[in-house]
Amino acid sequence: MNCYKNEKYLAAYADGQLKNWVIRWVLKKHLKKCKNCLKTLTIQREVKQLLRQRISRIETPQQLNTRIKKQLENILYQE
Fold first, then answer.
1. pLDDT digits (tens, 9 = 90+) for 51-64
2. Domain containing 29: what range?
3. Mean pLDDT over residues 72-79, rounded?
4. Per the structure, how many domains does the chain have?
5. I need a labelling partner for 26 at 20 to 30 A (CA). Which of 12, 41, 50, 76 fits?
């Protein structure tokens, strides 16, 4: 796997959301050899950590939550 192909997987990998074990395994091997991709991954993880620390959760009105859930359900049932 080359660096270009890795770009689309790094964010999911940084979040622990990369489900495909083969891609995850190949990516791990690549990261052991490629300092540039490892640096990109490290930066992504650091940025995400900083965002989690600095951004507080916003409380939304219950009415808005209900509206969003209904719209999402409508979208899911249309597909």
1. 888 887 778 899 99
2. 3-78
3. 81
4. 1
5. 50
* Range list of β-strands (E), the chain: none
Question: What is the rounded CA–CA span in Å between residue 20 and residue 31?
Answer: 16
Prediction pTM value: 0.64
Of residues 21, 24, 22, the one with CA closest to residue 10: 24
- Three-class DSSP category at 19: coil
Pick from 27, 19, 59: nearest CA to 44: 27
The C-alpha atoms of residue 69 and residue 33 are separated, in whole angstroms, by 44
Amino acid at 14: A
d(CA 73, CA 68): 9
pLDDT the model gives residue 4: 87
